[in-house]
Write a structure and sequence with these properties.
The complex is a heterodimer. By secondary structure, chain A is mainly α. Chain A has one domain. Chain A contains 10 helices and no strands. Chain A has helices at residues 2-5, 18-25, 41-58, 69-85, 98-119, 121-126, 138-150, 152-184, 188-202, 205-224. Chain A is globular and about 70 Å long. The N and C termini of chain A lie far apart (52 Å). Chain B is mostly helical. Chain B has one domain (15-90). Chain B contains 4 helices and no strands. The radius of gyration of chain B is 19 Å and the shape is flat. Classes of the chains: A mainly alpha, B mainly alpha. The interface between A and B is medium-sized, with 18 and 22 residues.
């Protein structure tokens, strides 16, 4: 059982690595674009949702930060649809692969930090020392703040990977436990309820996307426009 | 299917018919009809585009589209993923001897 527990997380291949690319490219097919003002129901609901989230996300930025709005809205849409599609049975979720999350986290974080360092170097360096620290503590605190800055992209990537992977794994385990219990039949209903509740809570994987983009936003804001 | 030039998301884009549709081809001339098809990359891309817009205009781009327009796509996605992972899954059947 231990070998096939992790089998859904292996990247699917057709004689190579291409199937993972196909699966990563498939969420945009569910989000059509249109050139009309009044559209069908699908496009209308999606546009309404996008307007809601983008307004919520972008109010706390000034003009320079709002140039990133396309990037951030497409990021949240991509991660949300990918995670939600991964909740379907037997499907492969690309965000369970650490390589993909690192590929998303490191360029965005590096872009924000480098932008902050280029435009306002004094403000960017001032982040390394909080206000009001006693003088003997300053060297240690600078080291600590540097480490906390450098660990941000790793934290972003590993957070997303670990949460989605742990959720999928837990659902697998509880599902197989339910199947095993169904012959014995004693507390099987209780375990089925646990699955249901877990699935509902796991649909707060969408909240994880919010967590991803919000932490990214906070980092961008602080580094950039303060 | 007709062969077209450019994007053809709706029927008012002009479409010159080059060859017969599949349902009009007789069974004996099926191999020659298949060989006549355009298998270049742009031809295959055009076939995918035609299929996409055919589904889209029938089920989603209507005035009162229902949820079945998307759930059919998701069901096909589930079946597709199942066929991919069948290799792993066939060891998990409830049999005495695997």
């Amino acid at each position: 059982m231990n070998e096939n527990l992790f089998a859904p997380f292996i990247a699917p291949t057709i004689l190579g690595l291409p199937a993972a690319v196909l699966i990563i490219l498939s969420p945009p097919l569910l989000i059509p674009t249109s050139k009309y003002l009044i559209n069908n129901r699908l496009i209308t609901t999606q546009q309404w949702l996008i307007k809601l989230t983008s307004k919520q996300m972008m109010t706390m930025h000034n003009t320079k930060g709002r140039t990133w709005s396309l990037m951030l809205v497409s990021l949240i849409i991509f991660i949300a649809t990918t995670n939600l599609l991964g909740l379907l049975p037997h499907s492969f979720t690309p965000t369970t692969q650490l390589s993909m999350n690192l590929a998303m986290a490191i360029p965005l974080w590096a872009g924000a930090v480098i932008m902050g360092f280029r435009s306002k170097i004094k403000n960017a360096l001032a982040h390394f020392l909080p206000q009001g620290t006693p003088t003997p503590l300053i060297p240690m605190l600078v080291i600590i703040e540097t480490i906390s800055l450098l660990i941000q992209p790793m934290a972003l990537a590993v957070r997303l990977t670990a949460n989605i992977t742990a959720g999928h794994l837990l659902m697998h385990l509880i599902g197989s436990a339910t199947l095993a219990m169904s012959t014995i039949n004693l507390p099987s209903t209780l375990i089925i309820f646990t699955i249901l509740i877990l699935l509902t809570i796991l649909e707060i994987a969408v909240a994880l996307i919010q967590a991803y983009v919000f932490t990214l936003l906070v980092s961008l804001y602080l580094h950039d426009n303060t | 299917m007709a062969s077209v030039v450019g994007i053809f998301s709706h029927s008012s884009v002009s479409v010159p018919v080059k060859d017969k549709k599949l349902l009009e081809v007789k069974l004996g001339e099926l191999p020659s009809w298949i060989l006549m098809r355009d298998f270049s990359p742009s031809g295959i891309f055009g076939a995918f585009q035609r299929g996409y817009y055919r589904y889209y205009n029938k089920y989603i781009n209507v005035k009162k589209g229902s949820i079945s327009g998307i759930t059919m796509v998701l069901a096909c996605y589930v079946l597709f993923s199942y066929s991919f992972s069948y290799k792993h899954l066939k060891h998990e059947r409830l049999r005495k001897y695997h």
